[in-house]
């Protein structure tokens, strides 16, 4: 991470330039802070932080007023605020339709996808408070570091890998496909991990998303028994399924309605059954 | 400088498949992508993958449907390669664990799709792209392929010989969004562009905000001809308020389109009296918009897509995702009510000119997936043909870049002296297209490393300039101007004066872009800077679409012209090519290839 900050060196032209730009931006904000947003505008309060920008090094909330269009989502409101008031407002987003999993945010106190959350559906639709996902390191504004999440996913060997390479199309029963269907819907948004108290206290805990990924392969009948045994060993490790305290927070926040807690419980039962077998 | 044998730019379906292909051929391959791979827009594909897998179907039927769907300027060798390679690629995905929908006997399910003579669209619910993307990414993880995620590639590193056909590509330059580092990436054997489409040219699109024509613009400015850009697909069923896609699978399973009078419009008004809702996408989109324009639209804006009669069980089994999308993004319960839909931008048939190995005219530079134009879709892509395209040509390009011999290509690339049938265009544009001053992305240097380094320096300078500028125009204004003009003027129905308006607006946008600045001063995750760079790409792509659209004086596939209501095979069985030519674009044509392996695809009147 760059350590260049505007106030470390008064004569640094870069620093001066940044300071001037910020000043100008502030003037502009002042001037443009009141476009016609209507009488019942949404008050959008957004968490701001940037390790490089002097007045954003201390986290703060900025307030933007956004017109209340029918059907407006939290993502729409953020885009409006960025394109209208402050182009440095930073958040991840891409597909706008709840499949890329980029915009999991902490909205009015719970983990949700910005694109999938209509302002009108919130408990408080007048003031919308948007923060980065809790329990993640903040990179800037609403952007969090996802590396740890990806590492946990990788830890469960998240790929189909039967002991023997298949020869031609494999058959799979409709029942088996149905069994794993919900688990394959995960979009890696990280909402579940962020909501999980256990994950917050145990950095090594695989967490609901990764365990769900393991579930997806464990129950896929196209993989063989030998592979299943290996998969059980991974999820049964010290920081695996047994850490789950069935608080259901992951299941509650999952934007794809995956019964995560149930999946974890089912794998616990599989682990017990398997251990009994070897007694 | 980072070095690998093969650099793949983009981590969607095409990029991941190319990387796996290169890896399997023994190369050290790395993916450099502005999004983490699972965020890519392949994940939003819903309907399925066309492949002639079953008894009663064969690749020749698939190839024929593809050429006909493209209104006879699909190149036969491209369509045939697609059709021949698709079945193995689908089985390969199955072998990698993709959770396809299944029949009672356990085999992969296939369903009918628009313009197909056999129900060959292999699917996984109505979220096929999501499963395909994740399955491919899983295999990338399994192989330990290096991924530089949230690294934005802004330029390809290409040598600057006068004739683009003599140039070579040695890698690219990328900018680490998270830290601001700008680095050269040396691709020793090849650099494969897999950056996806250009949806951000339009303002009502099914595409992601990340689809900003990056690869098209980078290859174009480095000297690669851009092909058939005027052929833009408008999907008939997008949600009116957001542009979110409602899969063609909904009609494939039996969904019906109604106008405001409750009439089954496709039959009632003769748009497609045989196939009705399952006509090709261009036909259905025009049908719907005609209804709306003639006053039979619901709320004067959209038509209804009704799937209620399919019953909850079938819908939950095959189209569940559609219920969620309609509910979440339009507030409609598809089990209780018909869904509002209207045409929206969906796909760019054109793109970077390549042959069937994914090669461009610049040695070492490849393009695959939506960014490329092989041309496998001609003037209209069939639903279910984008996913096999990215698999088939992704795999081929990856292998070829890694040194595998795929034989002599049949499709020519580049404007070479010996190329057959090349014609120059004499069309007059209302304003001079292209750069405001001479410009080229090609650079000189004595060694590949020096060329990558020089390109890196040039990009560093460009980025510094944007960051240092203290005031000016916000890129969002410029981008929005392009999107509004293109949507108003170069949409489903096109006429000369409107396309000219668009070209004038694009020119203005270019001038305004001279004055853009980045308000965000930070080096950390500066999306303001990223979007500003993207907007330049959007401008270049929009211009090629409008140029091609103005020049093509006929009605073919997705390209409808008010003044030219006929398909004119005597003159227009040819591809539109635009070369950047150091900032002074040059428009020329290359004949379409209709000679297949066992047959000639004689243009016929297209009925559905």
Automatic annotation (TrEMBL), chain A:
GO terms for molecular function: 2 iron, 2 sulfur cluster binding; 4 iron, 4 sulfur cluster binding; electron transfer activity; metal ion binding; oxidoreductase activity. One of its GO terms (biological process) is respiratory electron transport chain. It holds the Pfam family Fer2_3. Residues 1-39 are annotated as: Disordered. Residues 184-258 form the 4Fe-4S ferredoxin-type domain. Its cofactor is [4Fe-4S] cluster; [2Fe-2S] cluster; [3Fe-4S] cluster. Keywords: 2Fe-2S, 4Fe-4S, Iron, Iron-sulfur, Metal-binding, Oxidoreductase. Transmembrane segments: none annotated. Coiled coil: none annotated. The keyword Membrane does not apply. Belongs to the succinate dehydrogenase/fumarate reductase iron-sulfur protein family. This is Succinate dehydrogenase. It comes from Halarchaeum nitratireducens.
Automatic annotation (TrEMBL), chain B:
Residues 5-387 form the FAD-dependent oxidoreductase 2 FAD-binding domain. The active site is at 281 (proton acceptor). One of its GO terms (molecular function) is succinate dehydrogenase (quinone) activity. Keywords: Coiled coil, Electron transport, FAD, Flavoprotein, Membrane, Oxidoreductase, Transport. GO terms for cellular component: membrane. It is a peripheral membrane protein. Pfam families: FAD_binding_2, Succ_DH_flav_C. SUPFAM superfamilies: FAD/NAD(P)-binding domain, Succinate dehydrogenase/fumarate reductase flavoprotein C-terminal domain, Succinate dehydrogenase/fumarate reductase flavoprotein, catalytic domain. Residues 492-519 form a coiled coil. This is succinate dehydrogenase.
